[in-house]
Amino acid sequence: MLHVRVASPAALTPAVVSLVAGDPGVINLVVLPGAARDPDGDAIQFDLATAAANPVLRRLRELQPGGQLGPVAVQAVEAEIGAGDLDRPRRGRYHGETEPVWDLVESRIVADSAYAPSFYALLVLAGLIGAVGILTNSTILIVGAMVVGPEYNAIIATALGLDRRDRAAAVRGLVALGAGFGVAIVVTLLFGLVIRGSGHVPRAYSQGVRPVSDLINSPDLFSVIVAVLAGIVGVVSLTEARAGALIGVFISVTTIPAAADLGLSLAFTSWSAAGGAVAQLLLNVVVLIAVGAVALRLQRSFWRARAGP
Question: What Rg do the C-alpha atoms of the chain give, in angstroms?
Fold first, then answer.
């Protein structure tokens, strides 16, 4: 269930009301003449069944060009007592599954793709945590670094840009990934040099016993399989708003650990390990972006086919 609010010019209100009133997924329609301010006009609000959301929101967007209709605010409703039969719309449902509300999906992705300083700071911090995990052969710290890293926001934003053929969004995501990982690698390199120069290198690491590092910088077929599966899970979790599954993506792919391993390998002049870390990092980022774009396109196509002519 969604709650929708619209600020409508008085002249356009009859068209908006006519548009939504005839849809079986719309209930609790309320029109408050003259109640809207900035922009001035009428306030319209209604509840909307999730299964009916996409066509209704699409028709509302068609009224927006030229600034005629004000912003359309959409809010998820956790529960409504005595809501009645909200399952009336048959479109947008398939064996218990409901079509994602694409406006909400895209707005979440776009909102998370604001590459503020905190985005780069978290990448650096995640890289340092990963570096400590590699030095101490601690898989727990590697998992922690994966969870802290925010790089999936830029990855899925790039995938959405490719899916929508929005070159600017795709380029912004790629630039953020390049700059973010670049800064994380440089900081991790400096951290490794400090640890090496101070003589605090763990004995096992200094003796070449590096099981965590060896796992990270040795990409193989299974690395590809995991990246593909994680990419699919990431898109499904976003479109279905399943945060738990999205966290599973964060701890499944070797992006931040590969960047941390690259910085450390350069600091300790382990050139073959550095090459493997680069391959692992590029493999995971490229596969996640490609699979994300394809999965978004396939989901749209599937639900479009379900809608019929």
Answer: 24
Number of Cα atoms under 13 Å in the Cβ half of residue 167: 0
Is residue 192 helix, strand or coil?
A: helix
Query: Maximum distance among all alpha carbons in the chain?
Result: 78
> Per DSSP, which regions of the chain are E strands?
2-8, 26-36, 41-48, 72-76, 93-94, 97-98
Q: Count of residues for the chain? A: 309
What is the CA angle 142-144-150, rounded to 5?
Answer: 105
CA distance 263 to 184: 8
Residue 192 Cα distances to 69, 215, 216, 273, angstroms: 56, 19, 17, 14
Alpha carbon distance 293, 290 (integer Å): 5
* Helix, strand, coil shares, percent, the chain, to 5: 65, 10, 25
Query: What are residue 228's phi and psi, to 5 degrees?
Result: -65, -50
User: Model-level pTM?
Assistant: 0.85
Question: In the numeric block, which tokens belong to residue 148?
Answer: 């802290």
DSSP 63-92: T-GGG-S--EEEEE-S--TT--------TT
Q: Where are the beta strands (DSSP E) in 77-143?
A: 93-94, 97-98
For 184-241, the pLDDT digits (tens) are 999 999 999 999 999 999 999 999 899 999 999 999 999 999 999 988 888 888 887 6
| 97-98 and 72-76 strand pairing | unpaired
What angle (nearest 5°) sits at the alpha carbon of residue 10, between those of residues 9 and 13? 85
Q: What percent of the chain has pLDDT over 90?
A: 47
The CA-CA-CA angle for residues 286, 283, 236, to 5°, reads 55
Residue 212's nearest CA partner among 179, 261, 176 is 261
Q: List, for residues 45-63, the tens digit of each pLDDT value.
A: 999 988 888 888 888 888 7
Extract the tokens encoding 237: 């979790």
